[in-house]
DNA sequence: TATATCCGGAACTCGACAGTACCGTATAGA
DNA sequence: TCTATACGGTACTGTCGAGTTCCGGATATA
């Protein structure tokens, strides 16, 4: 019968594509994106950084926008493990425990990538969705759990808007880094927790 | 003697440059910048929008970066009048009074301009300074006065960090608009005031 | 072993844009 | 009135980068 090759997606011949290189190329894309921004980034830069040929890139992604979209979408990897979130017993303790060098470094790179694609976001709903999913949502998810636990244990009133609380931290960080160009250090982050987030959550200042 | 024409900056001859067109050209630049972003913007677009010749632009600004820098720097015009700030007697009243359609419209355009140049800011200290001065500082200045008055009248403790308080509102707005792509409406702004800014300022929830 | 596809790399095409030059016209000072 | 410059507009130049094509070599199927 040979009834359509729906079940045989690749009865191909010859050397097979080495998909172990995909992550390396996407990482290179993110690096260049973070360093030069979307328009400053060239395919040659990415290929050189990944030690790959330009043709190799075009065999896998049909265009520059597709490559960037995929790179951003595949970024959700090195993320906070939602199963192993700190559980110190207090909201403040949990929030501070989330400030760890690896998390900060990860967030810094994400911010630079975000800066590089902000102007595209307004013009590409797909990229906007990918950025949302990969850059914004993971952090919000971690915060959400921590706040939810605080509500459950009665530490903060359940009248609070958890979705709003989740965005305060990221918003302050993004604004300081991208708009003000000031460093995001531990002192700043703790100040945010103590003077903005916890008051907004309804925690009495100690 | 003819001792240097230091005192004669323009003993020129012929038709004079029509400087009344400068603001129109800079406005056109900001419009295109807001719509397409820095890299998407072309000098031809700006010239067409301003109904000017490209040569006219290059007679006044030596390059695209110079033009954009000047346009951003000259943006502080349609700003909140610091002399005529609302004075309702309460911090909440003052903050809400600052939410007016003209202010919102102004802020939206500034946000789009900001989005268009964010990726350049990291690479151009001059542009970063101009954006800081024209887009960030005016709003912070208005907030600063309002908070200062609240401290002076004893409505909020003078232990608060006014500089930090000033950035909360802009940060939440920028994050919502640029990162989340959600609308910045009156409801959102009032929610920010009541659930984030006032608690951070140490105002007891009514 | 033959063939088809992969690889990194280099050379190429093609379109877009920054910046320049020039047109005919308008306007200021000598 | 003459001259030098500005104006809006168009055409040109030079560069740069996206995307394509081809190379010699590697590798998997038949």
From TrEMBL, chains A, B:
Q: Which top-rank group of organisms is this from?
A: Bacteria
Q: List the InterPro entries hit by this protein, alphabetically.
A: DNA-bd_HTH_TetR-type_CS, Homeodomain-like_sf, HTH-type_TetR-like_transc_reg, HTH_TetR, Tet_transcr_reg_TetR-rel_C_sf, TetR_C
Q: Where is this region: Disordered?
A: 1-21
For this UniProt record, the keywords arranged alphabetically read as follows:
DNA-binding, Transcription, Transcription regulation
| Annotated region of DNA binding | 42-61
Q: Which residues form the HTH tetR-type domain?
A: 19-79
A Pfam family name for this chain? Answer: TetR_N
Query: Which GO molecular function entries does the Swiss-Prot or TrEMBL record give?
Result: DNA-binding transcription factor activity; transcription cis-regulatory region binding
Cross-referenced SUPFAM superfamilies, in alphabetical order?
Homeodomain-like, Tetracyclin repressor-like, C-terminal domain
Q: What is this protein called?
A: TetR/AcrR family transcriptional regulator
């Amino acid at each position: 019968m040979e009834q359509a090759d729906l079940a045989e997606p690749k009865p191909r011949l010859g050397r097979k594509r080495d998909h172990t290189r995909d992550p390396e190329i996407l990482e290179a894309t993110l690096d260049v994106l973070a360093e030069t921004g979307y328009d400053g980034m060239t395919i040659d830069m990415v290929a050189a950084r990944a030690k790959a040929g330009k043709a190799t890139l075009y065999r896998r992604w049909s265009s520059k926008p597709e490559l960037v979209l995929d790179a951003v979408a595949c970024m959700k990897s090195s993320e906070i493990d939602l199963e192993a979130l700190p559980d110190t017993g207090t909201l403040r303790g949990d929030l501070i425990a989330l400030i760890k060098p690896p998390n900060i470094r990860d967030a810094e790179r994400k911010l630079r990538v975000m800066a590089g694609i902000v102007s595209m976001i307004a013009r590409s709903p797909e990229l906007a969705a990918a950025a949302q999913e990969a850059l914004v949502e993971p952090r919000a998810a971690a915060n959400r759990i921590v706040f939810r636990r605080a509500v459950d244990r009665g530490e903060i009133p359940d009248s609070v808007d958890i979705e709003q609380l989740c965005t305060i931290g990221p918003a302050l960080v993004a604004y300081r880094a991208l708009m003000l160009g000031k460093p995001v250090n531990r002192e700043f982050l703790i100040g945010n927790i103590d003077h903005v987030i916890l008051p907004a959550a309804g925690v009495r200042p100690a």
